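Extended Data, panel c. Modelled sequence:
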Amino acid sequence: MYLYNELLARADTNKPVRTGLIGAGKFGSMFLSQVPTTPGLEVTCIADLNPAQAQQTCRNVGWSEARIDAVHFTDDAGRMMESGKIDVMVEATGNPAAGIAHAREAIRNGLHIVMVNVEADVLAGALLAREARQAEVVYSMAYGDQPALTCELVEWARSTGFEVIAAGKGTKYLPAYHASTPDSVWDHYGLSNEEAAKAGMNSQMFNSFLDGTKSALEMAAIANAADLTVPPDGLQFPAAGMDDLAHVLRPQSAGGVLTGKGQVEVVSSLERDGRPVFKDLRWGVYVVIEAPNDYSAACFRQYGMNTDSSGRYSAMYKPFHLIGLELNISIFSAALLKQPTGSTRVFNGDVVATAKRDLRAGEMLDGEGGYTVWGKLYPAKRSLQMGGLPIGLAHNMKLKRAIAEGQPVCWSDVETDNTLQATGIRREMEQAFA
């Protein structure tokens, strides 16, 4: 109760944790829905490209008019962060270039940052986190999103003396999904265009969940925060349910699919023929651990742990995540404990733009979840050696040459604008952490 008791004290003394939100989309709206029932928390400012729509979002999630009137709505995030009315800034735009700019502005203004924007974090998070530490502010993953929840399980495992064999999440995956576009995405989700629009669901964003890009980004974020390795040739997406995690996600030398210990991986809720996996982990996260000695392995058996046939590998998992509904944990951890709920430390994983179909010279790339490319996870060293174009920069770039379906897009394949801040920071991050 260390956080909640502090919140009650804050509420009693009228010293709430003052929070600013950038981006009132789906994630932001989920966070906002929890604000009226959380003591010691106040949202003072909301920045969005459409402030009037952000106000309506607050109404839609149950805010009173009095609460709405107490908030400053703006389309200028920079001025919001200079206002002196914020302790913690939440970046939830999903735009990597904007996320980088907002993070640096927050650091300049001495604000803690909760980076919902995993796209920005994978693009340059190691550098941003280092700059935040130097400025003595917190740069944090967003609790409720799967990377932070996975890092929490890794922290638990290591702090209790277990070696982490694998860590990651579940998702709905079939190889054909890599070619999915915003036009076909709702068919895979079992929704109509009207149902998706009514729920405020963006087709390109949700397509990035399906085509493998978001999985790659989140596994790169976990690898970079928890210092884990990534598969040498991209995610395998093995089909595995909750009872099978320890059996499937162990090293190949022990009969599993991993090339080594300490690796990130995503498990599919579908068999390759489309059949559902028994007790799937589609919405959850996991960590696979190894017993350090015979006594620990015996305890696994005695306490009913799910193990592989050897009894030495076991798994802990959380079957669901509540996304923005859980974000308060990161805000309070930053403001009250001065600790992140996961933060990038190294550059182990990178996500490279990969052709969804045969692309022609002169075509414009349309970024994450679009019609042209999906993001594939690579070891950062390999990505740099091949000159792979980060998926976070693969938007509104013109191809100089044709790229075959399934092939990576490289920096040399596109016309680049080296004056862009995001490009410069990415290059700086590569030099500092490669």
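Residues 118-134 form the longest helix (17 residues). This feature is highlighted in the accompanying rendering.
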